[in-house]
């Protein structure tokens, strides 16, 4: 999950006294194959007092009519929409569709037409008060090819019945919905041609149960939990990756690296792709393993190998692999965040990246997290951070976990202990980390596409 704060002018009109109208967080949505197919955008909006139309308020909402009093709800709604169309937010979506909760104010304001219909799906709360004006507006937006999601469904009610004809997707809160009702509800909705999204799926058994019922989409972090070793294929044998990581930790020579890599042709193939696709081999094509090692460098090979642990064994694009995306985003966030803290240098940034990337290692290997970390020969501060959330690294790991769950109050409280970090800075770093992970295969500064 990544977050971003939308900034606007304060009521005094001073740009340096900007206040945050809203913060965003993304949560992954997976398809039946367990691959990313979208993100839900979680919005935390600020409450604003009513203000009269002034030069300052006009600057805060440049689309408001001159001389008209500013409606705080509309001002926040427009701030949310402006944030959604930012290039940085689009980058964090990594080409996937965004599911976004919309308020009545957002729906009724033509400002919403700034959101591309092919990139956004509007979530309609089952708590909406339905009237003729709202239905007419939904019909008009539907005619413009906007798509709707019926959100927070636990069981049919009057609002559900009125909104269902306009919904392409029905999101069911499986934790709150009566279990005995689910099979019939799924059957009826599938017969009506609706796509079904199961939310709150944080354990593998829940995914398997809803998958068997016929759900099409799944929202939750079940894919990042420790599972049986057979539940996820990897793109190279685990022992080969672990041996390579242990060797890299000891500052190996090129000859030592070459000998280790030659033991596994899959790793050689990946490294040759890495060297030739990233622009590192300037002026000529890399044709030998030694040239590939020299062109890539041990630091880059180490990061590539760390993330390769999470890559799915199928031919999956990096931006569609949910576990690799989550691990890469968390690692990059940790690296960016620690650089804002006092007396943090290159070694601390490397340790932060390692802490983030290996915090999910039990999802791949299963078994004891502590024993796996010992095999990786990670330093004590890194192990303490991952196992017990201790130290500065543990604090930053707690921050990124809170971001992933949109626990805004917890993020703010943790930032108090990690000054000078602020919630707004943390949010921006989360966004930057998500964008980095999602487009890394197209950037010489990031990670290259990992495929068999």
Describe the protein.
The chain has 452 residues and is of the alpha/beta class. The chain folds into 3 domains: 3-224, EAL domain (TIM Barrel, Alpha-Beta Barrel); 235-308, no CATH class; 318-442, no CATH class. It contains 21 helices and 9 strands. It has helices at 55-60, 72-84, 87-92, 104-108, 132-143, 158-163, 182-191, 204-213, 238-248, 254-262, 265-277, 289-296, 298-308, 322-338, 346-358, 362-365, 369-375, 380-388, 391-404, 408-417, 423-439, and strands at 3-8, 19-30, 36-45, 97-101, 120-125, 147-153, 167-173, 195-199, 217-219. It has an 8-stranded mixed beta barrel. Helix 19 (391-404) runs antiparallel to helix 20. The protein is globular. The model is unreliable at 1-19, 53-59 and 441-452 (pLDDT under 50). Residues 234-424 form the HDOD domain. This is EAL domain-containing protein. It comes from Paraburkholderia panacisoli.
Task: Provide key terms for this protein.
alpha/beta, 21 helices, 9 strands, globular, disordered C terminus, RNase_Y/CdgJ, EAL domain-containing protein
């Amino acid at each position: 999950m990544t977050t971003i704060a939308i900034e606007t002018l304060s009521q005094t009109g001073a740009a340096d006294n900007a206040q945050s109208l809203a913060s965003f967080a993304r949560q992954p949505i997976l398809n039946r194959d367990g691959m990313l197919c979208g993100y839900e955008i979680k919005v935390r909006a600020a409450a604003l007092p009513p203000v009269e139309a002034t030069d300052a308020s006009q600057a805060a909402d440049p689309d408001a009519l001159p001389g008209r009093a500013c409606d705080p709800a509309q001002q926040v709604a427009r701030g949310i929409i402006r944030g959604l169309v930012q290039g940085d937010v689009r980058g964090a979506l990594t080409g996937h569709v965004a599911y976004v909760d919309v308020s009545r104010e957002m729906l009724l304001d033509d400002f919403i037409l700034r959101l591309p219909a092919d990139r956004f799906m509007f979530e309609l709360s089952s708590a909406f008060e339905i009237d003729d004006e709202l239905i007419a507006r939904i019909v008009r937006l539907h005619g413009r090819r906007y798509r709707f999601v019926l959100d927070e469904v636990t069981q049919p009610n009057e609002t559900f019945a009125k909104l269902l004809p306009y919904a392409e997707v029905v999101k069911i809160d499986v934790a709150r919905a009566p279990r005995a009702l689910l099979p019939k509800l799924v059957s009826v909705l599938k017969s009506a041609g609706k796509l079904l999204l199961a939310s709150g799926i944080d354990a593998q058994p829940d995914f398997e149960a809803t998958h068997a019922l016929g759900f099409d989409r799944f929202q939750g972090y079940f894919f990042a939990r420790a599972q049986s070793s057979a539940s996820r294929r990897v793109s190279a044998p685990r022992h080969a990756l672990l041996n390579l990581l242990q060797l890299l930790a000891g500052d190996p020579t090129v000859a030592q690296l070459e000998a280790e890599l030659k033991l596994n042709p899959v790793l050689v193939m990946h490294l040759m792709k890495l060297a030739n696709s990233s622009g590192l081999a300037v002026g000529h094509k890399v044709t030998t393993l030694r040239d590939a090692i020299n062109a890539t460098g041990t630091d880059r090979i180490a990061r590539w190998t760390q993330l390769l642990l999470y890559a799915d064994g199928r031919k999956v694009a990096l931006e569609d692999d949910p576990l690799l995306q989550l691990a890469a985003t968390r690692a990059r966030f940790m690296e960016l965040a620690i650089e804002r803290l006092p007396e943090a240098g290159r070694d601390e940034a490397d340790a932060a990246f390692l802490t983030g990337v290996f915090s999910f290692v039990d999802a791949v290997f299963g078994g004891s997290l502590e024993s796996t970390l010992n095999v990786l020969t990670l330093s004590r501060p890194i192990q303490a951070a991952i196992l017990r959330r201790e130290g500065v690294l543990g604090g930053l790991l707690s921050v990124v976990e809170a971001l992933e769950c949109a626990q805004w109050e917890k993020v703010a409280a943790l930032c108090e202990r990690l000054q000078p970090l602020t919630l707004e800075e943390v949010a921006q770093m989360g966004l930057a980390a998500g964008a980095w992970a999602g487009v890394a295969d197209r950037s010489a500064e990031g990670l290259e596409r990992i495929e068999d």
